[in-house]
Amino acid sequence: MDQLDLFGNPEAQTKTHFEIQNGDYIYVPDFLNKKKADEYFQALLDKIEWKQESMNMYGRQIDFPRLTAWYGENDKPYSFSGITLSPHPWSNELLEIKNRIEPKSGVEFNSVLLNRYRDGNDSISWHTDAEKELGQNPVIASVNFGAERKFQLKHMETGEKVELILKHGSLLVMKGELQHFWKHQVPKTKKKISERINLTFRVIK
């Protein structure tokens, strides 16, 4: 299936749909052209209310190795890793991005979790987006800005792995049973890299 070039990017690649055991995903490396991706990246750096969250682990408060923010409809809090986030109202840029990805994702999203990776030491460990608020077989749409980072999937029963390099302006949509059978992570890297912002749009029930 050919990708519709909605954003004036003549080099946009064909949409790639992967069916894997117990799930499927779509990865569009050039979903946004560089000019538009650069504009969004700078706006997100400047305007989002970033916060350093922490969690209790073995009796100690441990900072998340990244900054986070939660935006969306005002009655949709989100709980994970022992914390509960109350959403900020949608910004203009987040609404624009949401409206652009929904036709590709086939879902109307009501919330977005933002992660800001300041350098290669920031990361997110193996986890699933399968909290009860997300319902059965949630669709998660991930939009990526800034430095390219390695994204890994691992099947919880077979150990099979899938690895992607998430590019500036790319879109990744995880669908089907994937969140119930596959973990995913963004590992640390020793490479000297600049900042990355990841938006994961979701539907809170």
UniProtKB/TrEMBL annotation:
Cofactor(s) the protein needs: Fe(2+)
SUPFAM superfamilies: Clavaminate synthase-like
Cross-referenced InterPro entries: AlkB-like (IPR027450), AlkB-like_sf (IPR037151), ALKBH3 (IPR032854), Oxoglu/Fe-dep_dioxygenase_dom (IPR005123)
BP GO terms, sorted: DNA alkylation repair
Pfam families found in the cross-reference section: 2OG-FeII_Oxy_2 (PF13532)
GO molecular function: catalytic activity, acting on DNA; demethylase activity; dioxygenase activity; hydrolase activity; metal ion binding; oxidoreductase activity, acting on paired donors, with incorporation or reduction of molecular oxygen
Domain Fe2OG dioxygenase: 108-205
Top-level taxonomic group: Bacteria
Name by which UniProt lists this protein: Alkylated DNA repair dioxygenase AlkB
Source organism (scientific name): Christiangramia echinicola
Organism phylogeny: Bacteria, Pseudomonadati, Bacteroidota, Flavobacteriia, Flavobacteriales
